Amino acid sequence: MTKLKSVIFLALMAAFSSLYLTVGIAGEQPVQHLIVDDITSYQEAKQVFANTTADIKTKTKFDAADLHDIHMITYSLEKAIAYFVDNMEGKKKAAAGKMAAVLELVHLSSENNRNIEIQVYLEDYFKRAEAFSAGLN
Question: What is the value of pTM for the model shown?
Fold first, then answer.
């Protein structure tokens, strides 16, 4: 990436990050395209979390096909993170809640074909996911 593109990308990333931290995407709600069963065990949540996060990391073009795939993957990933939010305590629960908020923005961005926004949100999600997974056993 050229220096100018890097600066522009970082500026957009900062702008989008502050946007979702304060107001989100103007009350936008996702459309339920897929029904996924709830996750009922820690082991299952941990496995789905690891596998789906790895699947999303393979998407690098952010074209319509990648965005569709990411959108479908987020349904299972949301269930795994919801399990952590519901069943953890303290800092891990708070971290899972923040990760869930960022993942919702990934979901909305992929659902609405926003290929620039999703890159910003995914970078944030991956940082949070890496820190969160470091404490899983």
Answer: 0.76
